[in-house]
Amino acid sequence: MKKTVYTEKWTDDVHLTIADVDHIHHEKTPFQTIDFYRSITLGIFFTLDGLMMANEKDEFIYHDMISHVPLAVNPTIRHVLIIGGGDGGTAREVARYQHIETIDMVEIDERVVRLCQDHLPQTAHALDTDPRIRLHFEDGLAFVNGAKAGRYDLILVDSTDPIGPGEGLFSHAFYQACYRALSDDGILINQHESPYFDKERREMVRAHEKINALFAISEVYQFHQPTYPSGHWLFGFASKRYHPINDHQPAKWETFNLHTRYYNSDLHKAAFMLPTYVKEALHNAR
Amino acid sequence: MKKTVYTEKWTDDVHLTIADVDHIHHEKTPFQTIDFYRSITLGIFFTLDGLMMANEKDEFIYHDMISHVPLAVNPTIRHVLIIGGGDGGTAREVARYQHIETIDMVEIDERVVRLCQDHLPQTAHALDTDPRIRLHFEDGLAFVNGAKAGRYDLILVDSTDPIGPGEGLFSHAFYQACYRALSDDGILINQHESPYFDKERREMVRAHEKINALFAISEVYQFHQPTYPSGHWLFGFASKRYHPINDHQPAKWETFNLHTRYYNSDLHKAAFMLPTYVKEALHNAR
């Protein structure tokens, strides 16, 4: 197979380049362009509209941090909604909790799921095997609007960046719909972009303004995601009741006896301790 | 000026590329090759033997984290030795503490200092203006071996990677010499590489093994450095007496009233809370 080079423009001039890749799939769907590549260091990875979504080497970081943080704050969560997350990695981590009863996963583009099942079973395997996971191939905002009020204990917004099909998942209407669909002690985790380069920092601030205006508790936590722009990435934690640090239940979480390669109980609190320039940017958003 | 492209191979196949740079200086010294570039997003940056050392956009992170962590553990530090650190950024941060009496800076390659004074005054300016900073252009190991036992309260090893002139600064003999040159409550901070890609992880483990064998207290802390390989970088904190968390003195540090853009008292403890895969790699080094 002909080797090619994958380049992602983190900014106009700062690029992540991955040399010697096999371009194993290319497809245009009604929603976006999907590409899969095989690389030496990162293993299989896929992109949507040319942006890195997940790769075999570092996907464990993102999927640990989106799922285990809320489950260590409310370890009795039973009903989970995942918006996006087509690679299945978020569902895979959530499905490790035996006490969780239902996992609804709403992905607008069925082709992302089917291609990940073919090419990236490391993330997608739980979608084939866990009967609690129900796949819904439809628009996330429409699905959440149609959900019963208070239906979910946890909503995980595992979205792309706020361009293309992911744009609606950063809207005020979407966060409002999530608020309604969450139980009184519900938790919303959202992909919160990055503080470092201008483009992602603007989206971080916009998302924070909107969520902060709706939820009693709205915090932000960070992690190291080497293949996302700058490697410094964030999730938002919003809740009507639970504070991610004051209500953290490490002893209970440890009884689940899950081995996690990135997340751990010490790192849980630490992830919310942000650099000063990030705190200042978020504070100005309030 | 002709525009060029700067590429740094983080691994054989994963590269950071900076497009549209002006190559403003190139020089071979007896020790290494020095290049300065001007870029759109990162501002001025320089490389040693082709590896990014510092740039105007993210140098504040590295220099915050190497200097303020130890000074918030022992706020009475008076005598500081900096090994390497030719760009002057570490000396600049240390010099913000008025109570510090002497700052010896040992840089093997005078040209690094002189070129940073010309091209990167943002980091180098304190070298010109602060009389407490004494520059020594000599080998770091030889200098530390020649220092009086117990001379320093703090040694900051602001080195390049363990190849080329930086190699000796990762040796057992060097760490042993630092131990001898430190006072009974002395602290050693060292550039501890990265846990993520194989090459830096091997060096992280090797450095940790050596320091851990010498010092009663040896911990590792992390930060986000977007332009270093993977963006996930570490410093080591070693001491004969002080534990970086148990002996942390945030109230005292706050009285210095220093505005720092990355470091803050909450982040201090949090930085020592490492991902599980990093803890496991370091534990295996013990």
What does this structure look like?
2 copies of one chain form a homodimer. Chain A has 286 residues and is α/β, with parallel strands linked by helices. The first copy, chain A, has 2 domains: 3-54, Spermidine Synthase, Chain: A, domain 2 (Roll), CATH 2.30.140.10; 59-284, 3-Layer(aba) Sandwich (Rossmann fold). In chain A, 33% of the residues lie in helices and 31% in strands. In chain A, helix 5 runs parallel beside helix 6. The N and C termini of chain A lie far apart (51 Å). The mean pLDDT of chain A is 96. Strand 2 of chain A pairs antiparallel with strand 2 (14-28) of chain B.
Summarize this, please?
Chain A has 286 residues and is of the alpha/beta class. Chain A is built from 10 helices and 12 strands. Chains A and B meet through strand 2, helix 9 and helix 10 of A and strand 2, helix 9 and helix 10 of B.
Figure out the total of helices of chain A.
10
Major β-sheet profile of chain A: 7 strands, mixed
CATH C-level label of the largest domain in chain A: Alpha Beta
Give the tally of structural domains of chain A.
2
The CATH topology of the largest domain in chain A is given as: Rossmann fold
Oligomer: homodimer
Strand order of the largest sheet of chain A: 8-7-6-9-10-12-11
| Fourth-tier CATH superfamily name of the largest domain in chain A | Vaccinia Virus protein VP39
Q: Biggest protein-protein interface?
A: A-B, 44 and 44 residues
Mean pLDDT of chain A: 96
Q: Runs of chain A with pLDDT <50, length 5+? A: none
